[in-house]
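Please produce the structure of this protein holding fe (ii) ion.
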Amino acid sequence: MSTRDLYTTAPPTLTWQVPATGAARFSWEYDDGRERLLALYQKGKDKQWDGATRIDWDLEVDPYDPLGTPDEVLTLHGTRHWAKMTEKDKGDLRRHYASWQFSQFLHGEQGAMVCAARIVESVPDLDAKFYSATQTMDEARHAEIYGRFLHDKIGMLYPINDNLRGLLDDTLRDSRWDMPYLGMQVLIEGLALAAFGMIRDTTDKPLPKQILAYVMQDEARHVAFGRMALRDYYRQLSDAELREREEFVIEGCHLMRDRLRGVEVLENFGIPKKEAEELSEQSEFLHLFRKLLFSRIVPCVKDIGLWGERLQKAYLDMGVFDLGDSNLDLLMAQDEEIAERLDAERFATEERARVTEVTDTIAQGATTD
Ligand SMILES: [Fe+2]
Ligand SMILES: [Fe+2]
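Below is the modeled complex.
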């Protein structure tokens, strides 16, 4: 079925064009490369996987509770609207929220694919081009998987959130080659990763858990790349140039904190925008969620050397300054471990099932003999 038919509100056109500026760069130096970047490229090649086979698409998903979300977590819980809702309405609400959330993941993954391809085009060094080419493929696989989940399992899609689109637009229009890294790899991916992690660790539904765990396994490489490339580059920039990047980060963080809350969902339930914003603002769960959302961004920004006074103050005001000390490497290592453990568990179960099947067949054979 065409995605147009599954959108809650179909976008006016099905193509979005962002004019490109900046140069495509070639490198004639084929011999050299930074060891760490080439190692990451190798890992990117070694760790490719196919969502069509690695994910168990036969698992059923209840579209009215795709993630097993408890009542208390829903923004409307405890409000006057909640009291009027039937069980069916609550199911619809869960479906809309899951659809909104995963649709933003999907559009974000497409954005990541386009940005990674842009980096292939514009970054001066060949080692970074090679690595980004593997990431472009990773992001294509992620977009494919989220798209399939939404089409086949939830049957509903939300258009891209206006503010997410705005941030992508700024990121892509900028002619400085480091901006797609900063906007996409550090900000948008950092935010996405935190959101993936929260759902991965709280959902009791096996299909979304698999999807998120496996996607996160790849994202650990992406963040590692952004950090390496930017740390090297930002050491060479002047103070004024660094301040510009910090301003961009501050603005992006504010926007993501205040404007990515699924207000569109509540509007679709007939709640006026202003009230929907207030309800989201008051939601205790969203408060916690918003802080956790920065768990990947803040330490990364600090690590790449964007830690000027203004940025520190902005993070203090947002209540996320302390996150600068969290151990990003440990979080990434855990992401990889979780995916590997999930594979091992599933493999063990499948192996047991296969052994049982073989034993049964043998037993059957013995009785028919
Ligand atoms: Fe991705
Ligand atoms: Fe990514």
